[in-house]
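Project standup — Tuesday

K.O.: blocked on the structure for the chain from last sprint. Re-posting the sequence here as requested.
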Amino acid sequence: MAELVTGAFLSSFFQVIFDRLVSSNFTDYFRRGKLDESVEELKSTLDSINQVLDDAEIKQYQIPNVKKWLCDVKHAMYEADQLLDEIATDAPLKKLKAESQPSTSNIFNFISTFTNPFESRIKELIKSLHSLAEQKDKLQLKNQTYAGNVVGFNSKPSERPTTYLVDASGIYGRDGDKEEMIKVLLSENGGSNQTPIISIVGLGGMGKTTLAKLVYNDNKIKEHFEHTKAWVYVSDSFNVVGLTKAILKSFGFSADGEDLNLLQHQLQHKLTDKKYLLVLDDIWNGKAECWEQLLLPFNHGSSGSKIIVTTRDKGVADVLNSKLFDLQQLDKNDCWSLFVTHAFRDKKLCEYPNLESIGKKIVDKCGGLPLAVKTLGQLLRRKFFDHEWRKILETDMWQFSDEDNNINPVLRLSYHNLPSNRKRCFAYCSIFPKGYEFDRGELIRFWMAEGLLKGCKAYKSEEEFGSEIFSDLESISFFQKSLNYRFAMHDLVNDLAKSVSGEFGKKMDGAWVEGNLERTRHVWCSLRLNCVDKLLGPKCEVKGLRSLILRHNTMLISNNVQRDLFSRLTCLRMLSFRGCCLSELDDEIGNLKLLRYLDLSYNSFTALPDTICKLYNLQTLLLKGFNKLTELPSNFSKLINLRHLELPFGLKKMPKNIGNLINLQTLNYFIVEEQNGSGIKELAKMNNLHGTIKITGLGNVIDHEDAAKANLKDKKYLEELYMVFDGRREEMNDPMVESIVSVLEALEPNCNLKKLTIENYNGNRFPNWLMDSHLPNLVSLELKNCGLCSDLPSLDQLPLLKKLYIRECPKLKASIPKGDSMIELHLEKCDRILVNGLSSRLKKFVLSENRYTEFSMEQNLVNCMILEELDLDVRGFVNCPSLDLSCYNSLRDLSIRGWHFSSSLPFSLHLFTNLRTLKLYDCPQLESFGRGGLPSNLIYLKIENCPKLIGSREEWGLFQLNSLQTFIISDEFENVESFPEENLLPPTLYELYLIECSKLRIMNYKGFLHLNSLYRLYIWDCPSLESLPEEGLPSSRSNLLIEECPIIREKYKKEGGERWHTIRHIPEVYIDWIKQHDHE
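H.V.: unblocked you, prediction finished:
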């Protein structure tokens, strides 16, 4: 794809270089090195090039040599930035070292010798820029400003994965299309065995996905397909195994392993005799053999099943032999309505009469594409002057063809009208694969590492500046919200980013990208063994690489490979080894002096090398996940530029003098050690902390004055605070209790706090700041193991409280008020907490091990008609509670522990049509599920220590539960020789867990015969079990785990086990957590 370099993009780059050259740090340094003349020459040459960039931006569409010249200029800017970064890093270190010498003359001698290599490189850079300046004259580039840049934004603040969610209020002109689609979906299949496929075909940005969403969410469709629907985003990555797993998960089924035969067999069984709807969004692959393989499991559903695909390629529709739904452009009226919605928002069109005629002419140029109309409307939302709209209407950008890139002119125009700093930040996003979901904070830190947020003098921090830019890009739909607070880019927007980034960014997602990588600066890599070796091997010319993101690679990156990488790629600003199975980090990491971002999350390090403390420029260090680190290097506090530090919770001690890291904005974990370790006072100057922090070891704080010095009250950006004491009470006397109370009193947080947890607190009362109205913004409060406290904070003082968790506070006496905001309530081992009617908005209620004399569920939850999760432990109840749950049909998860009042539950389970999960524990008198049995849509069932109920298991009707995927059973199995009985379990079962079945002796082969979907069998602590089925286990079995079963352990282990041959066909076998082999 050809690159489209923009003048404003480079102008931003130039401005950063200029600002650095005139800064006091650089001018002093160059003056001492006698390089003033060279630097002035450099600035003059840069300025002469900068003046013609806007003219070059326009002419690149017509003159290929201009496009090449712009690429060369961009390459030169990267080289200049690299040189200045090296000087900025090494000069202060050299100066500090020189100042430690005995005389002043040594300082200047040291600097003089130090500057020589940089002098030659500066002159080489000037020579290169001189050549580019001469070429601009030959290309007849003129000094002029592109008018389009005045429209858009102020310079000061003022894996595109689609989901099925949609906001129908802002959609125009698709009602007829929607109704026609619904009519097709509700029709029968006409006797054909093949599932009909409907292809929605149209140009990019036409609204194919939007139409599919409208149909998918229609109530008639929901009722017709009875919730058996799935939505899968495909894009240009067509992997049959990956897609099959994604489809299984979207239907709500488990999907493990990589064996396509097993996965498709499972999918076929799940869909047999069911009426289903599957949407495959954004299809690019038109290879018939791929589709034939993918669609094999889909011909066993009931009549009326349908598959929808969305694609730009009619060839895909032909290959699928599908019904073609050719989506057309919006008409002018609908386009205008859509434009007005986004351009004017809360304003009235009649207040701007002069803009209507201009606006309609602009909309006409969008060609009826909804995405183009929406994007342009959002672009103009900020401006309401005639001349600004006319400049958009009259710009030459509409005329330029871009056949190689197929970039929509409206998207290109939106990009060109961004301020220069926004352009650079957007172009960096070309590194993301199509379909990648990114986090707001993650991307901002990427931008910081690349130096894209420098020069934000009007802002308090680079993070805030980055957040402004992110919001601006979101406002013009370059970023779109996905699920779980993440974002993605539409495929067309991703294409645009790739176009403007060109040869400087590469994505390698599943396959090696051939070609010259000499100028490549950013690489995203998610590859297999041989491809990663190509990238990291010494023959690969990527020495100018600035960003290297390796994600979930399957190879072990050895120390030798790391050493070579760290010695060659010294230009790296950003490095991610996230989820790469690393157990060691090579010492040579210290060579990456310019590194600003390092992600080592989800690896298994036990230690980090001391050389990591040489990464003077490091801003972000991520160590969360599976790391086994217990401590950090001793000189860690030298990383004074750290702003974001995420630590593993297995850490045992903080690095010495961590309080020196006053620039930290993220610190998720802090340990208060005993006398000689890090104290609470280390937090004193960290007032820039944002987000969440967990502070443990607060029992080691002896003096309330030390606690006050932590200065939590001034940490106004913190939103979540976890305060963990040590919980020791056996040694506590009255003075010690009072001391703990005074310590917590001194740890008063800022009033902006939203979530607070106090755990293992040894005091006998809560602090005044919690008892009064000092935390008006609190949304979540958890009090855990506060065993000496008797008074609950006044919840009326917390008007925004939505979630309340009180655990192991036996002396706490209070009545839970009927607050309107409460949606989640957990009460565990709190006998004196009374529940007298709860919020009508309550969705989750957990009541565990409370000793109540009387309890009436219908009285306490009388208003809770939207309750979704209910977890009751009634073991401590003196009398039989009233549990009439018949009116709570919204329940999805139900857990009951300790029912001992009758032989059946006091409600009919089969009436809970929305129930998906049922767990029953420790119910010795329970004999049956009651009249009607189990609900038909149950997916997860766990029965533990309910001997009489398990004794009647053949009466449960499990075989008829076609939705059941997971069954967990734990019982002694008194008088039971073998399990499971024939036709006991449903054929849809995916996972079977046998836990602590102490008297079970034999697994019944006939009980497994029909379990063709069974994927995982887990057997734990069954000491009497003598054998697995003599005839073997089902062929669908891919995962067998055996723990603490001494008899079968010896029989079935790989080395010397007499019965190993009966299970060797299973791909993954673990015995006592030791993997027996990798199935080939």
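K.O.: great, moving the ticket to review. DSSP finds 30 helices and 38 strands in the chain. The first helix runs from residue 7 to 22.
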